[in-house]
Design brief:
- This protein is of the alpha/beta class.
- It has 2 domains: 242 residues, 3-Layer(aba) Sandwich (Aspartate Aminotransferase, domain 2); 128 residues, Aspartate Aminotransferase, domain 1.
- It contains 13 helices and 12 strands.
- It has a 7-stranded mixed beta sheet with strand order 1-9-8-5-4-2-3, sandwiched between helices.
- The structure holds pyridoxal-5'-phosphate (PLP).
Length: 389
């Protein structure tokens, strides 16, 4: 790929010979599904983020479902989350028969607003869990959210799908609440293609999630076909799910984990180049920053009224200039399912709506290199200038 002329994709995974060899080793081992490699990945991930338990799952969506189930979320309960997220953050509450109440995001940003959360908790009955989302890798205001959750007697499940490896003074984002859920989807900073990890330091929750991850079977069964001592017998104690991560994918995850800090460093460098280039552009606002930003996304904000064009036209022009982009997120309350279920209009959550209307996520991936980042920055500046009055 030629960095000075070819299309710059929005995201590209960074996979090397290490991942290839690790997958080959699993292929040759004769054991493809969940086994010793997934177990090692869990141990290494737990140790990396400083959590007592880590459970490898086949997606963050599955992990969020397991988390709420383990907390006992069910019919009659309410789960509070932000509308500024991906479909599954809220959908899993409905899978369990609970209702969802949305809480708007901070003005000028993407994360749940603790001030509004207090209003929501004070006026909503039966809130079992709050699910803050660390959008784009910027951690939410966790001390305030945890304090509110404690005061109102609800659990906190961190949607940490974007925030690996985000270190805060009190620990990694994803390890601060009762349960944290990470995603290894193809565009994430470390990837297994599809996959995720659930972390908790509560042994009871870990046990429940482990049982429910594997058909509701009450003991680890992965080696029952090969171990000389294992028994063929098992017992089903719940109507569980099938949410395990196979060794084939865990092998990729183990190699990616070793590179996570380097990946973060590269992302920071690209965010730095963008920051320098966009500061001072009359049509652009920099994304919110804060401690522990994992820079999973670089979400540029277009200043309202500064362009004679919509965000969508800006995106089209960037594509014509050879730059891939995306938009994170189309707020859930504007989606037909949620709008109809709860009678929500787009202006019900004005901050989420405003952030959505003016945001464009630019390419940011390790391996992208400074030349490509500067090319993206030039294209943004030229596109904005071309669309300004
Ligand atoms: C904020 C957020 N939460 C949860 C998910 C679900 O992740 P997965 O695709 O691993 O199920 C995503 C997916 O990208 C996401 O962006």
């Amino acid at each position: 790929m030629n960095p000075s002329t070819d299309f710059v994709p929005f995201a590209l995974p960074s996979l090397g010979p290490e991942e290839e060899e690790a997958v080959l080793a699993v292929l040759r081992s004769g054991w493809l599904t969940t086994g010793s490699v997934a177990l090692q990945f869990e141990r290494e991930f737990a140790s990396f983020v400083g959590a007592e338990h880590a459970l490898a799952v086949n997606s963050a969506t599955s992990g969020l479902h397991l988390a709420l189930e383990a907390l006992g979320v069910g019919p009659g309960d309410t789960v509070v989350t932000s509308p500024y997220t991906f479909a599954s953050t809220a959908a899993v509450a409905r899978h369990l028969g609970a209702e969802v109440v949305f809480c708007d995001v901070v003005p000028g940003g993407y994360n749940m607003d603790p001030r509004r959360l207090e209003e929501v908790l004070a006026s909503t009955r039966n809130v079992k869990a709050v699910v803050p989302v660390h959008v784009g890798g910027l951690p939410c205001s966790m001390p305030e959210i945890l304090d509110l959750a404690r005061r109102y007697g609800c659990a906190v499940v961190e949607d940490a799908a974007h925030s690996f490896p985000s270190r805060l003074p009190g620990g990694f984002a994803g390890t601060l609440g009762d349960i944290g859920v990470f995603s290894f989807y193809a565009t994430k900073t470390i990837t297994t293609g599809e996959g995720g990890m659930v972390v908790t330091s509560d042994s009871r929750l870990a046990k429940r999630m482990s049982v429910m991850r594997m058909h509701g079977i009450d003991k680890p069964v992965w080696d029952r076909y090969t171990s000389k001592t294992a028994s063929w017998s098992y017992s089903v104690v719940e109507a569980g799910f099938k949410y395990n991560l196979p060794d084939l994918l865990a092998a990729i995850g183990r190699e990616q984990l070793k590179k996570a800090d380097r990946f973060l460093e590269e992302r920071r460098r690209i965010a730095g180049i963008y920051g320098e280039s966009f500061r001072g552009l009359p049509f652009a606002e920099l994304p919110p920053e804060g401690p522990g930003h994992a820079w999973h996304l670089y979400s540029l904000r277009l200043r309202p009224g500064s362009l004679q064009a919509s965000r969508d036209e800006f995106v089209d022009r960037l594509r014509e200039a050879g730059i891939g982009t995306s938009v994170h997120f189309i707020p859930l309350h504007t989606m037909p399912y949620w709008a109809e279920r709860y009678g929500l209009t787009p202006d019900r959550f004005p901050e989420a709506l405003s952030s959505f209307q003016r945001t464009v996520s630019l390419p940011i991936w390790q391996g992208m290199g400074e030349d490509r980042a500067r090319r993206v920055a030039r294209a943004v500046a030229e596109t904005g200038a071309g669309l300004s009055g």
